Give the backbone structure.
Amino acid sequence: MDDILTALDQQHRELRSLLAGLDASGWRASTPCEGWDVTDVVLHLAQTDELAVASATGRFDEALEVLGRGLTGIGSVDDGAAALVARDRAELDDAEVLERWERGTRRLVEVLRGVDPHRRVTWVAGQLTTRTLATTRLAEAWIHTTDVAAALGVALRPTDRLRHVARLAWRTLPYAFSRAGRSLAGPVVFELRGPDGDVWSFLPDEPAATTVRGDALDLCLVAGRRLDPSAAGLRAEGPDADAVLALVRTYA
């Protein structure tokens, strides 16, 4: 758990460095999240970090009800997230959004350091361990940091933090397939190249039916829906080759 929380804190620092001293035009810059500018992305992170704190402290349902006040007829998770951002955006200026996000990140890491990493808690995707919850927060913080960087025209260097993101994508493949109404034909192995050229292997307990090879950054971007599988340098072999690349995800 400590390694994940260290990576989460580092990811927060990277995003904070992009936001420091940002002027109004920077906050208004469009991101790869369709219809969202930098302020919207940071506000979304603040809201979901608050939900994660509530989850880790056994108050998820209560917090979701409070956060969703006044909103009705919400369909998908994405629709709900968009509605929450639109509502709170009308009430907060950029400085208030930044302060809310910074306060939430500090509280999130503090709370997660004090809980049993194996305890199961409620999250958007159902029940998961607090360790997995921490990893999902890292994955979301990372992908939205790339969104902000893209909006500001900043090139980010990939880091070993991506190992946690890639492992999350691998471990949650059954969830990704179930969301699509499908089942895996068999276990999947990831053999990925890390940012420093080392090999990251994620191996199932049983012989693999499908193997995915390629760059870890590409895999994480595909799982975060920021890169189309056809444009990535990933190679997949086996009965679920195409489906794994189409369905892999690191979010609820």
